[in-house]
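The records we work with from here on pair a chain with its fold. Taken together, the tokens spell out the fold as the letters spell out the chain. The record below shows the convention in full.
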Amino acid sequence: MNKLWVRISLTYVAIMIFLIVIPTGIYLTIQVDNINLVQPDGGPFEQISDGQQPSFLTRINRYGQSELVIGLVRILFSISMMGMLVGVISSRGLAAPLNNLAKAARAVGSQDLTQRIEVKGTSEIREVAVAFNSMAAALEEAEDLRNNMLADIAHELRTPLTVIQGNLRAILDDVYELDKVEVARLYDQTRQLSRLVEDLHDLALLEAKEFSLNIDEFDLKNMIHDVAAIYQPIFDDQGIKLDLDLLDESVVRGDCARITQCLNNLLNNALRHSPEGGTVRITLEDKAERTIISVKDIGTGITDDHLPYVFDRFYRVDPDRNRRSGGSGLGLAITQALVQAHGGEITATSAGKDQGSEFIIKLPQLS
């Protein structure tokens, strides 16, 4: 009774009985005086004592083999068979995509995330199929990202650990002397590991929306001036010009330390990709109820195939994955998460390779 075809068949039978058999019985009962039934031998019904014929129901009970009863039984049987046939045929068309969906769902539950189902059937079934395929695609993409992230984390941890392990082995074998220079190298590697672990922790908290922000009003112009003053010697040392084009005043509400961290990440990114003699320009403006911070360089640029992924964790445009030229791959991901935590958005644009790039942060204006 729990099968779809059984339920649909019984539904069709019930509908046809209500539409045909019951109205027919009611009609015959109402028109009893106009109906002349005969006995099975062809003779008329006998009269009762008062000279009247038996009632319609009495005649039916007394002569159960009459043509009327046989006809009604035949009609009822035909309706039942027809209802079951139609139910089986229609239920097969409805159950087939549901069976396919159940099979694919079991496969996804067994970690086969490549499963997809054919989009066909009624509009409702098609919507379910499209939703399932979208869910499976999202799960497959998330699984790929997870696997890539684990591989990237292992890669990032392996590099400094290998350096530390190799240097310590060399010290034990008396290849290197245990002096302050060597200890400083090892210390730098441990700081690199600490930064990576801290960045991973911050990013995990941001993505889980468990990261706490110290929200307060502050002037973006003053903050940018302070950051630029810190970076100016570094830019001068690399022969890169740092330009500022700022509003007279731009007060926003947010976590000043975290917005500073975002600007630091963007400036570090610009430094890595700007050649000697290049220019990095920081712009601050108000537009469409948004406060906009722009960091633009004329460096290596970003090709169209890389642009959609620049904010992904551990993603680097440089294919050699060199830390000095490509960073750890977490800075832009953290920047995006921090900006979004402030109710803003960040975008990246570039005209192509060697055409420079521009990163734009849009924050809500103070109301």
